[in-house]
Amino acid sequence: MCSKLGRFPLNIAIMASGQICDIDPKVLEKLKQFRFAKKSKGNAAYVFEEDEMYDDITMEDLVDVLPENSPRYIVLSYELHHHDGRNSFPLVFIYWSPNTVKSEMHMLYAGVKTYLQSQADVSKVSRSFGSDWHGLD
């Protein structure tokens, strides 16, 4: 039996292969476009469940668009200033889980996190529990 997680086609089920999540290929294609988009400044974010991309968004603005009672998976491209004057835009996979989330929902999302991270091909991971970004810097 599969169930949808959020409004986005991320189906959860324990499959014979041990895989617990099925991701719509269109979402993976959008994520690929996000990963390889040329950025010139600021942060950019892709929120899986919303299937939304945000360009040149501050961390505070990103927190404002996230729901207060539901976890989210986010791939964030942030602007990193190097000492030699170069800028780069590394990616980080964020598992966002506000304090108000029911424990069953938190466990469901936490169980899928590793698989989704591997499919997103992002090695740097951050978890945020609560309602702010403390600890994500």
UniProtKB/TrEMBL annotation:
Instruction: Provide the protein name.
Output: ADF-H domain-containing protein
Q: Please cite one Gene Ontology biological process associated with this protein.
A: negative regulation of Arp2/3 complex-mediated actin nucleation
Report the sequence similarity comment from the record: Belongs to the actin-binding proteins ADF family. GMF subfamily.
Q: InterPro entries given for it?
A: ADF-H, ADF-H/Gelsolin-like_dom_sf, GMF
User: Where in the sequence is the signal peptide annotated?
Assistant: none
Tell me which SUPFAM superfamilies the record gives: Actin depolymerizing proteins
Q: Give one Pfam family, short name only.
A: Cofilin_ADF
Domain (ADF-H): residue spans on this chain: 11-137
Q: Which GO terms describe its molecular function?
A: actin binding; Arp2/3 complex binding
Which species expresses this protein natively?
Jimgerdemannia flammicorona
Q: Which PROSITE patterns match?
A: ADF_H
GO terms for CC?
cortical actin cytoskeleton
